[in-house]
Structures are given as C-alpha cells and as structure tokens.
Design goal:
heterodimer; B: mainly alpha; 5 strands; nucleus (chain A); DNA replication (chain A); GINS_Psf3 (chain A); GINS_Psf3_sf (chain A)
Chain lengths: 163, 210
C-alpha cells in the first residue's frame, strides 16, 4: 500500500492495464490460439528466451529499454507477481546492475558533454537516477563559480496591478 | 532547501552547506579593539590589536571584509600537509581524514582572504587535486555495489560537500536495488512455504574498511 500515492507506480499501472486485460482474457482459455499481436509484444518483454533477454545478456548498457516500455522495471515487478515466473526478478536485477554503472558514470561527468541519444535508451526510473546525479553536480559547479550569495526571490519580482 | 517539492533536490543546497561550515572556528589577528561579543552560540573576544584570537568563520569573514582583521590559514591548509594528504589519497583506497567542511572553508578563504594564505596557487591546486581524487574514489566505490545484498553504505571520512553531491543519486539507486531484490523474495514465499528465506537480508558489505 505504500505505493498507493506514488505517481510513478500509478502510471506504471496505467501502462499495464491494456496488456493485462488481454492476457487475462486469453488466460481464461489458456491455450486459446487467438493470434493476438499485442499479447505477443507483451510476452516478448519477459519471455524466457525472448529477444530482449538475449540483448541484455549481450550488452545490457545499450539496450533500448525505453522503447519496450518507459516503466520497464515496474512492469517487470508486477508481471513477476502475476505470472509467477521466478526468473524475471534476477533478470531485472542483473539488467539494472549493469546499466546502473553506466548511468553513474555519465550522470557525474563533470564536463557537460551532451549525450542526448543515450537518454532515449533509459527507462523512467533510470532517468530519474540520472537527473538526480546531474542536478547535484550542476548545483555544486554553480556554487563554485561564486556569484551573489543572496538573490531576490522570484516572487518579489512580479509587479502587481493596482486596480 | 529541505522542504522543496523537487524530489531531486539534495537535502542541502551548496549555499546551505557553506552556511553550516561557517560555524567552524578559525584564528584571526584583529587590528581593532573591541569588547567581547556575546552571542547565543558563545562568547567571542575581547579583541585587541595584534593579539590572535579564535573566532567563527562567519565573524572572521565579516571582519575581514571591513578590513578589521587578517585571517590565519588553518594548519591543515599548508602546502606540506596538503601534499602529504594528496599522496596518501592517491596511494590508498580509503579516504584520508580531512576537516569535514574542507571544501567550503577553502572556498570561503580563497574568496575573501586570498592574501592571507601563503602559496595561494599551490594550495588551491592541491585542494582541487585532492577533491578530484576523492571524487574518483567515490565513483569507483559506488560502481562496486551490486544489487545482491547492499542496503546501506559506509563511507568513512567523507566530507560534507562530497556526501551532499552523491546523496540523491545513492539514495535512489539503493532504493531501486532494494525494490528489485525484494520482489525476488516475494516470489519465494509465494511458491515455497519456507519462511526463513525472507529474513535473509543479504550479507553486510562495507565499502571502505575501517
């Protein structure tokens, strides 16, 4: 229940809704051979021998997880609970571990080299991580540059219309 | 600020850390005569010309700006000491003991009291190098934490500014690792009635040994 108010969680669940519905509908008649293209796509994300898994085993850092789903990790956690596939958890963990190292290095690069293409590969959680690192480094550099200690609060800048 | 709605903000802004650092004591040589100042935080003074006294950094900087004193560089800020520290940082994997606010103190002194520090350029570049080496060590250490069992980190002798820079990143990363590993445990209890496995929080791993 702790995730009830977490906006990320809510959005991830939003994402999940269309696919779960299809899965549930098909799961009723489990071996229903209705050829559902969407169901395939959803399964491909986490199926044991899927293309995604192979890509991650090869080079986790550069796999474009965002195009699979911006909420890759959250989706994975929920699906793991639903379909009781025990290999998903460790798979997610390993993927995150390898990618996390890259995010770490790039986020804290003291020089502001733009890596726009790299950002499109990251899922939402990873982007938050990246931004957290980036913003604190930027704030530190700004402080080191010096500058006025006290700044006028933006609220005071507005002129009020005296009607 | 601690209360902003921006979830990415560190617990402290850099300016706030500087504010906290200004409470550190430093030695000054006043050139005015003044009676003791009584503050809630303590009493400072009395100030007599050419007699060195201890004063908090904020007071020292304020007096210096008005030309009422000269500041004596703290003893860790000498070329010899800093060279020693730099060598030790480069050779060892641990962090060398340094004043907790050394980054902020050095910036303040360079900004306001540049003339009072002997060998300013040398000292400045040494401190920059020390900072870079330590930062690099932090990065190395962070790379090594794997999701398996790490739920807390211990970094001995880290300074205030360094801790503040990595704080948002590390807390988020640890949170995500925890979420991902705990989902494994949930699966375990679903399939097997073995209760003991959920209590296993993984081995305690310390990044920097004592």
């Amino acid at each position: 229940m702790a995730n009830y108010y977490d906006i990320g969680d809510i959005l991830a669940e939003e994402e999940l809704v269309p696919t779960v519905f299809q899965y549930g509908a098909n799961g009723v008649g489990l071996f229903d051979s209705s050829d559902d293209a969407d169901k395939f796509h959803f399964h491909d994300l986490f199926l044991a021998r899927s293309k995604t898994r192979e890509e991650i085993a090869a080079d986790a850092a550069h796999v474009d997880l965002r195009s699979r789903s911006p909420y890759f990790y959250e989706l994975g956690c929920k699906i793991a609970l639903l379909i009781r596939d025990r290999t998903i958890g460790p798979f997610l963990l390993v993927a995150f571990q390898t990618r996390y190292r890259d995010v770490l290095v790039k986020a804290h690069a003291l020089t502001l080299t733009m890596t726009p293409k790299y950002l499109t590969l990251l899922t939402n959680e990873e982007i938050k991580l990246y931004e957290a690192g980036q913003s604190s480094i930027a704030a530190f550099k700004k402080w080191r540059m010096g500058g006025p200690r006290f700044q006028v609060a933006p609220v005071l800048g507005r002129k009020r219309k005296l009607t | 600020m601690a209360g902003t709605s921006d979830p990415h903000a560190s617990a402290f802004s850099a300016a706030e850390l500087e504010f906290l650092a200004e409470d550190e004591m430093i030695e000054i040589v006043p050139n005015l005569r003044m009676d003791a100042l009584n503050f809630i935080s303590g009493d400072f003074g009395p100030f007599r010309p050419q007699i060195p006294t201890q004063a908090p950094l904020w007071l020292a900087v304020a007096l210096k700006k008005r030309g009422k004193c000269t500041i004596r560089a703290p003893e860790w800020m000498s070329v010899d000491k800093l060279t020693q520290v730099l060598e030790a940082e480069r050779d060892s994997d641990k962090f060398q003991p340094l004043p907790f606010h050394y980054v902020e103190i050095s910036r303040l002194l360079f900004d306001h009291a540049q003339g009072d520090i002997p060998d300013t350029y040398m000292v400045r570049s040494l401190i920059e190098d020390i900072k870079d080496v330590r930062f690099h060590k932090i990065g190395k250490g962070l790379e090594s934490i794997s999701g398996g069992g790490t739920f807390a980190l211990k970094l001995k002798n880290l300074s205030a500014m360094e801790a503040n820079i990595v704080r948002p990143f590390v807390t988020r990363a640890l949170e995500t690792f925890y979420k991902l590993s705990s989902s494994d445990m949930i699966q375990e209890t679903d399939n097997a009635p073995n209760r003991q496995q959920t209590a296993n929080r993984g081995p305690r791993r310390q990044l920097k040994d004592r």
